[in-house]
Structure formats: structure tokens, C-alpha cells
Amino acid sequence: MQIKTEQFEGPLDLLLQLIEEQKLDVSTLALAKVTEQFLNYIRGLQEKNPINLADFLVIAAKLLVIKSKSLLPNLDLGTEDEEAAFDLTAQLLTYKKFKTIGKFLGKLDLKRRQSWAHEVDFSDRVTFLPDPDITIISLAASLRQLATELKNIIRLPQEFLKEVVSISDKISQIQKLITEKIETSLSSLIKDAKSKTEIIVTFLALLELVKQRIISLEQSEHFADIMIKKTNAI
Amino acid sequence: MDSQKLKSQILSILFVASKPVTIKELVGVLEVSEEELKQAVAELVSENQSSGIILLAHNNKLQLSSNPDHSSVVKKFLSLELREKLTDAALETLAIILYKQPISKAEIENIRGVNSQYTLRHLLIRGLIEKIQSPSDRRMQLYKTTLEFMQHLGIKDMKDLPDFEELTKSIELPGAAQNANGQ
Q1: Which residue of B111, B153, B179 is in closest CB contact with A108?
Q2: Under CATH, which number does the domain B88-166 receive?
Q3: What is the ipTM of this complex?
Q4: Cα–Cα distance, A23 to A13 (Å, whole number)
Q5: Quick count: other Cβ atoms within 10 Å of Cβ B2?
Q6: Chains A, B: CB contacts under 8 A, how many?
Q7: CB B63 to CB A104 under 8 A?
Q8: CB-CB contact of A92 with A15 (8 Å)
Q9: Contact between A103 and B91 using a beta-carbon 8 Å cutoff
């Protein structure tokens, strides 16, 4: 007899179907009879869907114990193994009961009598809870302190701006110088610099002029003064 | 406390709570005994069976929910799409958890005879079951059905579910009635 190639929920499901299809009494004899078919199914499973193979093998082992016992009644396999195998009938019955309840739940599911919860989440609402220690005086003091701190933050860039020498100013200054003198040096350019920032800006201005090929730089050796020349017009 | 007032207070709290509220939380807030509260909850559950909003109570958790009797109109109002049907494996596993809860994964797999990892994860994601730590062994986790399970299947009161014996009394293996009972 061929087993239909439908999917079973597991080895117990398969065994149950085999027995019920043949209208066999669940006796050790009946279980022994379906062993061959069960093993055939496992052979197919090995290729198609090996995921639950181990579970099928557990039941197959029990079936083989039962079959061995029915063929060789004198065979002694040890009480533990035998008991485990002969428990199969009870296991099948329990499984069948839950399978039936599963079908009952499936009917409930099909009725689609869904009910819904109230999903407003009040915990997300923002609430202002002032500290009980807050007084008008402490609030005023905090505000004054905040104002002072803000004043410092606002003043800071003003002081910074005073020191700034812009690169474009420096560029025109160097260009003017170079047209007058043809050649000059970095040391003479930064001789009158009032701050470190001005030296940096001078250097940046030189780099920009080199990049634009307006001037060219020459240095005879390491740490020697850098000579600045106007690039020869092509 | 006057029981009418207590019931009214329970409803107000459950209305503003967005997630299931435990009996323990309510006992703390309402300052009543657990028996008093459970009595009030039992009354609310039975009194509200035909109301638009019913009280779901299961595993010491409470939640207000729309009445499953009106699921079709609510669905129409929310313009909900058809939901996915539960698979046979999912139903089988749910059936075991429902009547054996709290139950471990090993016990479930023993009954089903097949690895149930994937099915359990699927049911957890759908919120139909939840995991709790076993009180006897902290390394072990047990599975229970949730309030969402009740909502999903439209169960108004766990008492409405048929008794396990009643549901399975006619089930037997072919010709093996005495055989199985003898085990």
C-alpha cells in the first residue's frame, strides 16, 4: 500500500493516519503491521524534508521494538525499552485528543470573532511635574544665572573676531607687495605679524596664491627662508 | 469597600491602561484584599458578557476588550483585511498549551512527537502565548496562553471553553478503548 505524499504534522500524526486508514485495532499487532509503511515514508522524508527526521526515527525505533517482540515473543530487550515502546498506544491517544482540540480551536479561528483592546497609550502623554521645592525666588535666581551664562556665550565670538585677519586681505596685500618688489621672503612677510593667527593666515594666503599660480616658492635647504617670486607670465 | 464603587474604579483604571493590568497591581492601587478584588472581577466578567466592552480575565491579568459578538461591524469600521489563518501545527500546539498550561517545551514536544521550536516562536510572535519562568526551576520556561489568545478566538470567558474531558471523551483509537484505558 502506498502512503499519500501529504504533509504530516509529525510521526504520531502519520502513525495515526496509517492505523485509521486501515481500520486496524490499535494492538501491538497492528502497530507491527504498519511499521513497514512507516519506514517507507521515512525513506522519502530523508530527501524531501529531513528537518524533523530525528523525531520520526524515535517513533520508528519504538515500532521496531514492537515488531521484534511480535515476531520473537521470547526476545528480552530490557524493561525500559519495552515500556517506552508499548507506551506508544497511550501516546497516540493523547496526541489524537489534542489534535481534535486543535480542530475545535481551528473552528473558533474560522468564525473570526476577533475582539480588540483599547490602544490609546496615556503613558506617552507629556506632563509637567514641577519639583515641590521650586519657589518664585529660586526660579528668578536660576533665570538670572542662565542670563549671565548666555551673555558669556554671546560675547565670546566678538572677542575672537577682533583678532581675525582675513585671507583675502592678506592675498591682496602679498600681491601688491610682489608687484612692487618682484621678490620677497616669508620672514619679511611675517616680520610685522601681530599674532600667531596672522602668521597662519599669511601662510594660508601664500598657499592659495601658489595654487592659483600667481606666485612660486623656493627654498634652498631645510629651514632656510622661503623666497616668494611672481610666476612668470606664459 | 462598597462593591459597586470598587467595580467602577476597576473599569476606570482598565480603560486608561493600554496593556493588561495584573491583579497584584490593582490590589496595590485600590487598597483592597485580593479576594475582594477577584470577586469584583468575576462579577464584572459575567455582568458585561453582552456589553459592547467586555472584561477579559486570565492568568491574573485583566484587560478591557471589544465584544467579539460585534467583530464584523468593528472590522468594517476599522476596514481591516482578512487575517492569516492559524496553521494545523499552530492549532495543535495551542490546544496543548491551552489545556495543560503552564507547560514546558519538552512536554509539548512529547505530546506532539515532533520538534515544536518553530511553531512556539511563531505563536509567541503573534502574542497568542507567553513564556514564564518555572517557579520550581529557574532555568526552565513554561508556556501559557495570553489575553490576546482570548481576543483572537473571541473567547469572552475562559469558563466558556469546553472542559477537556467533555471535549475528548468520545475520542478513542480504533477498537482500542480498553487497551488505551488499561495503560
Answers
A1: B153
A2: 1.10.10.10
A3: 0.73
A4: 15
A5: 7
A6: 167
A7: no
A8: yes
A9: yes
Nearest to A115 by CA among B144, B145, B80, B39: B80
Domain final residue, candidates A74, A107, A140: A107
Q: What is the C-alpha separation between A41 and A127, in angstroms, rounded?
A: 65
Contact check, Cβ <8 Å, A89/B155: no
Cβ of B92 and A102 within 8 Å?
A: yes
Q: How does pLDDT run across B141-167, given as a tens digit for each residue?
A: 999 999 989 988 989 888 888 888 888
Q: What is the mean pLDDT of residues A61-69?
A: 81
Last residue of a domain, one of A75, A107, A139: A107
Amino acid at B67: N
Fill in the amino acid letter for B146.
T
Give the whole-angstrom CA distance, residue A28 versus residue A73: 12
| Count of beta carbons in the 10 Å neighbourhood of residue B7 | 19
* Residue at grid coordinates 496553521: B87
A183, part of any domain: yes
- Beta-bridged to residue B21, according to DSSP, are B62
* Cis-peptide into A130, omega within 30 deg: no
